[in-house]
Amino acid sequence: MQIVLIGYMGSGKSTVAKHLSAALSYEKIDLDSVIEDSEGKPITDIFSESGEIYFRKREGLLLREVIKTKNNIVLATGGGTPCYGNLMEFLKSQTDVITVYLNASAALLTKRLMAEKDARPIISHLKSEVQLNEFVRKHLFERAFYYNQAQLRLSTDALSEEEVVAKIVASLY
Question: For the whole model, what pTM was predicted?
């Protein structure tokens, strides 16, 4: 089985992947790390040197490679991963893939992302919390079509990491 976590940046995909993979004794894979390892540089450098289109092409190629070659994994994707290159359609077409949308509110995402926005190339240019919140709301609206196609959708604002993991595990069996 391959469990693919999707959701906006800051929704907790990497953290949940760590705990869920431990609970299931699965391998944890972070797609951003796979991309960085493949390119030999951080995501921020890939964006600044090669641009978002190049990044999205590499992201799609490497996602497909991971899904085709790995089993018993929990894969944390990037926030935009399911929204480009027909990747959500690809994930839905795979018989052993379960997609999980970690749905966090714009308010919570803004709070989490404000503290780390300089390390995230897509939002590093935003100067205020108001600008960031507007950006997050716009993206959530645009991406909802893709995110809501996940087989499991969890509203995570009121849940601890352990509760999120427990709900995912309960839905699998």
Answer: 0.94
Structural domain of residue 79, as residue ranges? Answer: 2-172
What pLDDT digit, counting tens, does each position of 71-127 carry?
999 999 999 999 998 999 999 999 999 999 999 999 999 999 988 887 777 888 888
Return the structure tokens found at 20.
């869920």
Phi, psi (degrees; rounded to nearest 5) at 103? -95, 105
Distance between CA atoms of 152 and 134, rounded to whole angstroms?
Answer: 26
Residue 67 and residue 160: Cα distance in Å, rounded? Answer: 28
The alpha-carbon radius of gyration of the chain (Å, integer) is: 15
CATH label of the domain that carries residue 119: 3.40.50.300
Residue 17 tokens, joined: 């992947």
